[in-house]
Design brief:
The chain is an alpha+beta fold and 149 residues long. The chain has one domain: 50s Ribosomal Protein L5, Chain: A (2-Layer Sandwich), CATH 3.30.1440. Helices cover 42% and strands 29% of the residues. The protein has seven helices and five strands. A five-stranded antiparallel β-sheet has the order 2-3-1-5-4. β2 and β3 form a beta hairpin. The longest helix has 16 residues.
Length: 149
């Protein structure tokens, strides 16, 4: 049985954004107490030399990583859950990682939506996968089916 064993989080905070608001958006997706100990902020320069922050963190507690995934999938609207299942091939790599991107602005307001533009990125590492794509798809389907109970 495949299981999420860790989750890595990354998000950019642009010069026009309040770093604390970006962190709040992140904490609305991943519990602050789970990610805060590993949180790192790296100062970068954008394409036009504008200041840019990369905020990263990692949760390595297996149980907590799985709970974060269940919570996020459960908070998605039904259309995004369907999209997630349909796009598994594009979101899973050969190293058993599931990549999810969430809308940063919506997350700040407490909503969970998949998004490709200016996202909060989460990479879930899975173990126990013989065939990553079907195994992870099956795991996601079981989470969604468990929500209906």
């Amino acid at each position: 049985m495949s299981k999420a064993v860790s989750v890595e989080v990354s998000v950019f905070s642009y010069a026009t954004e309040d770093e604390k608001k970006v962190e709040r958006a992140l904490f609305n997706l991943v519990p602050e107490e789970a990610i805060r100990p590993s949180l790192r902020v790296e100062r970068l320069s954008g394409h036009y030399r504008d200041p840019l922050l990369m905020i990263r963190g990692k949760v390595t507690d297996r149980g907590l990583a799985g709970e974060i995934l269940r919570t996020l999938v459960g908070a998605l609207p039904p259309t995004d859950r369907e999209r997630l299942i349909l796009e598994v091939e594009d979101r899973v790599d050969e190293a058993n990682n599931l990549y999810l991107r969430f809308d940063k602005q919506k997350a700040y307001h407490g909503r969970v939506l998949l998004s490709e533009a200016d996202p909060i990125r989460l990479k879930f590492k899975f173990s126990g996968c013989n065939n990553p794509i079907p195994d992870i798809r099956s795991h996601l389907v079981s989470i969604i089916e468990g929500l209906k109970d």
